[in-house]
Amino acid sequence: xxxxxxxxxxxxxxxxxxxxxxxxxxxxxxxxxxxxxxxxxxxxxxxxxxxxxxxxxxxxxxxxxxxxxxxxxxxxxxxxxxxxxxxxxxxxxxxxxxxxxxxxxxxxxxxxxxxxxxxxxxxxxxxxxxxxxxxxxxxxxxxxxxxxxxxxxxxxxxxxxxxxxxxxxxxxxxxxxxxxxxxxxxxxxxxxxxxxxxxxxxxxxxxxxxxxxxxxxxxxxxxxxxxxxxxxxxxxxxxxxxxxxxxxxxxxxxxxxxxxxxxxxxxxxxxxxxxxxxxxxxxxxxxxxxxxxxxxxxxxxxx
Length: 303
Known about the structure:
Blueprint: E1 3-9, E2 23-28, E3 31-37, H1 41-47, E4 55-59, H2 71-80, E5 87-91, H3 94-105, E6 114-118, E7 125-129, E8 133-139, E9 147-153, E10 159-160, H4 162-167, H5 175-179, E11 184-185, E12 191-192, H6 194-197, E13 198-199, E14 206-210, H7 220-223, E15 228-232, H8 240-246, H9 251-261, E16 265-269, H10 279-288, E17 292-294, E18 300-302
Parallel strand pairs: 3-4, 4-5, 5-6, 14-15, 15-16, 16-17
Antiparallel strand pairs: 1-2, 1-18, 2-3, 7-8, 8-9, 9-14, 10-13, 11-12
Helix pairs in contact: 9-10
């Protein structure tokens, strides 16, 4: 089963010819989640050959334009393409009014249902859940209310050892309960331990998205031990005072969060336009957390 992070944009507020603004698609077991939707996101979706109609859930971290200015256009494109499947939109409460005022001004009545879910900026919250996947939000510290997101698989079922189940002549209708971890009891009362009938399940994977935020160690509680962390690294050490003033992070800050949270891998992004050589940021992060890589538009990371 796939779990892939596809970065569409990794630049910060000022547009450049090298980097698009913040947007990512996370694909988990045939589900597609769009996180943030900066200007030009739908162009990137087309360039990267991502099926827009498969996006059913959109998460907007905060109301700075580089994270949502592409959203009205994308929602309009869904409408023009004749979409009928519903969209669930998660974002700051004010976003609902912004979207509907634009739709009203253009006399647009969407073909599909748009369900809005306001974010909670006070404490972590479960936003989405089905039988296999959960999406949680958690507050960060920025100049406006901002949330990060964690997408994680639920614990998976154990794998059937067909050699063992055949040897004990276990009926097919019992296999689902055995996958769930139950022992098997024979007709004569013998208990066959589940460990004899199954193999360990595949590990569940997880991804955390943290942009934008100042250095905020409290968020580590929400991202402990994730397989991959995307954390903003707007500035280098040379601009630490500016990072503090604008409530952004340096590459070093991102690496410290990765270390404290015990994550497996860090990818940094949301670069200031002033940095043309991103290895400066990468090297500063690697001092604190070696397993760091640079985000780039079009980068795909499989977990």
